[in-house]
Amino acid sequence: MKNLSQISNPFNDDKVIANCGLFGMMSLEKNTFSGSDIIKAIANMRVRGNGLGGGFAAYGIYPDYADLYAFHIMFQSRSAKEQTESFLEGSFKIVAKEEVPHRYAIGVSDPPLVWRYFVETPKGVSDEYADDYVVEKVMIINTKIDDSFVFSSGKDMGVFKGVGHPEDIGNYFCLEDYSAYIWVSHSRFPTNTQAWWGGAHPFSILDWTVVHNGEISSYGTNRNFLEMRGYYCTMHTDTEVMAYAVDLLIRRHRLPVDIAAKIMAAPLWTEIDQIDDEEEKQQLTVLRQVYSGLLINGPFTVIIAHQGEMIGLGDRVRLRPLVAGIKDDMLYLSSEEAPMKLIRPDLEYTWIPKGGEPIIGKLDTKEVIYQNKPVQVGVNKDAVNIAA
Amino acid sequence: MERVKFSDNGSAEINADGLFYKDMNKLLRDIVIAHNLEKVRLTNVYGQRYIGTNIDRPIKIEIEGTPGNDLGAFMNGPTIEVFGNAQDGCGNTMNAGEIIIHGNAGDILGISARGGEIYVKGNVGYRVGIHIKEYKEKKPVLVIGGTAQDFLGEYMAGGILILLGLNLKENEKHKATFIGTGMHNGIMFISGSLDKQQLGKEVGQIDLNDEDTRVLEKYIGKFAKYFGYNAKELLNREFVKLVPTSLRPYGKLYAY
Fold first, then answer.
1. Which residues of A are marked as active site?
2. Residue of chain A whose Cα is closest to the Cα of B21
3. B chain contacts of residue A355, beta-carbon cutoff 8 Å
4. Rounded to a whole number, what is the distance in Å from the CA of A382 to chain B's nearest CA?
5. Cβ contacts of residue B66 below 8 Å, gap of 6+?
6. Which fold has domain A19-65+157-387?
7. Residue B253 confidence (pLDDT)
8. Can you say whether the dihedral through the CA atoms of A246, A7, A195, A165 is positive or negative?
9. Are residues B150 and A44, on separate chains, in Cβ contact within 8 Å?
């Protein structure tokens, strides 16, 4: 295994504290729009970051290759690119490849090479096993090939990230040229580790992406739990465990999002004790016992996305901010309300979600689910009546 | 674009569109001092922080839009009126003045305030009134028209917190839990139903006295005036009075 400590964390103490800015926007009608608005929104929260990391995830951007796995890969050397390409050729059928388009941008220096590859799994790999096959190959690139890191590996989506303010990174990767129906962005404020391109958010596996504000103090426990299940943490930043946790819980263990939320932001034992319904009590107890290794401890707010869904979730006692807003077909999630209003001045319906309660934007039903029921927009228009 | 428009009556308007918070706050302070203004209206405010900080005089600041975090932080004198929602940390360590919010406010409203008054028409977030404190005549007051989220009045060390619950439906309870956890001074008045298990371990419920009625008349009267309610109707509601059961709830925790 390659030594990551020198590039990502010279103190090698596995510890990161972050105080960041998050923004996500999704069209429940799958209308696509450019990256200009989200760049404007995340730039509005410039003071939440410090220019040492910015990134974006975009869904629905590769309609011509929608059935192929799109790998976004960062190389810190030419030889890393050669080794990775020969590995990809041996593992997949590469249908198309190119350097990810970029331009000179103020505030972005020493960028690594970032390429994208549209690949098919080999004939012998069944459809059912294809996702697991891709995860396995991503782990090999991340852990075995020096100077090569996979930004994202899902279908019809991609992650663009690097060191700089997010608006500068968005400009660098020409994100106004892409059309997506979900955009998620992150502005980073790393305090315990050196900033590097792979350490910027979003973190991703397959089409799952996670952006995070906070500090996961259970990182060591979570990492051990995930390593026993085939996920290797190579980015040395706490958020990475969240990406693998949602892949394990939702894709592999097929748990619904609200159950996954109850595992990561578990109800307090005192609350479980107060539940009258014996079945619910037992269910929550079992979840806390079976998945104790995926309880995310410490302050956090995350925006999790994959094809067809965008999810906002905060820790149980809300130690990091999250605001939600809805207008027409759009769901907005943000660390602050102001950027939502900046790009959508007619936005009236905003609320502060309860800690541990996910907000789920769902493409299949075109609904936003909060506290297990659809949010009805327009019912309560007066500010006083917007339910907390 | 004209940034600043002056009127003859000692007031001015600043178009804050696209202004970085430092530049906007400097502009605000500079024109208030240079022109001895009594009132400034800020328009197109989107997330600019620390508005009202460092202006030690009783001017009126009106805000259109969504002011950023720490609105009125360390504020000493001005009255701020927000025609919209406030974000987190509003009234942080405020000393004197008033903040009137016609929409909702976010988390830790009034954190560590040591004076001044805050009125919110709508709902508020987590940990509202955390560690507000009082000394002699300095006594911060928070009046909230809607409901609050968890840890209301956490570690409260003085002052008055009034929660009206006006948007609760009939028989609907406040949802906040851990109310008054770690509270060791000050008073909370809550209207709208609550279960005992929603309260923190450090608070107890007692009956209202005549002095309490006078306090409620004064501050709920102002709340009604600001947001167009009938004060009498509001005062007819039932209130629960919460006070700490101990002035030193953790005094014995580390003693031995």
1. 20
2. A47
3. 126, 150
4. 9
5. A336, A337, A338, A341, B45, B46, B47, B84, B85, B86, B87
6. Glutamine Phosphoribosylpyrophosphate, subunit 1, domain 1 (3.60.20)
7. 67
8. negative
9. no
CB contact under 8 A, B65 and A338: yes
> Which residues make beta-bridge pairs with A367?
A362
The three-state secondary structure class of B67 is: coil
Are A310 and A359 in contact by the 8 Å Cβ rule? The answer is: no
Q: Is B181 on the interface with A (CB under 8 A)?
A: no
Interchain proximity A341–B66, CB inside 8 Å = yes
Among A337, A354, A355, beta carbon nearest to B66: A337
d(Cα B16, Cα B2) in Å, to the nearest integer? Answer: 10
Element at B42 (helix H, strand E): strand B39-46
Spell A138-147 as b/e; 16+ CB within 10 A means b. Answer: bbebbeebeb
Instruction: Tell me which residue of A380, A372, A325 sits closest to A351, measured CA to CA.
Output: A325
Would you kindly state where each structural domain of chain A is located, as residue ranges? 19-65+157-387
Q: Which residues of A touch B69 (CB under 8 A)?
A: 336
What integer pLDDT is reported at residue A11 of this predicted model?
43
- B167 to chain A, minimum CA–CA distance in Å? 6
pTM metric for this prediction = 0.93
pLDDT at A236 over 90: no
Is residue B180 within 8 A of residue B153, CB to CB? The reply is yes
Give A1-59 pLDDT, tens digit per residue.
565 544 444 444 444 444 699 999 999 999 999 999 999 999 999 999 888 899 999 99
| pLDDT tens-place string over residues B104-161 | 999 999 999 999 999 999 999 999 999 999 999 999 999 999 999 999 999 999 999 9
Residue A384 has pLDDT above 50, yes or no: no
For residue B107, give the chain A residue with the closest CA.
A321
Q: Which residues of A touch B122 (CB under 8 A)?
A: 383-384, 386
Render pLDDT for B207-236 as a digit per residue (tens, 0 to 9): 999 999 999 999 999 999 999 999 999 999
Residues 6+ apart with CB under 8 A from A280: none
Cβ <8 Å between A338 and B148: no
Residue of B nearest to A348 (CA): B84
Identify whether the C-beta of residue A355 lies closer than 8 Å to the C-beta of residue A39.
no
pLDDT of residue A386: 41
Does pLDDT of A385 surpass 60?
no
Quick check: helix, strand or coil at residue A63? helix
| pLDDT tens digits, one per residue of B23-47 | 999 999 999 999 999 999 999 999 9
SS3 content of chain B, % helix, strand, coil (to 5): 15, 30, 55
What's the gap in Å between the CA of B26 and the closest CA on chain A? Answer: 17
- pLDDT mean over A325-353: 94
Chain B residues touching residue A354 (CB < 8 angstroms)? 149-150, 175
- The answer to whether B66 faces chain A, any CB pair under 8 Å, is yes
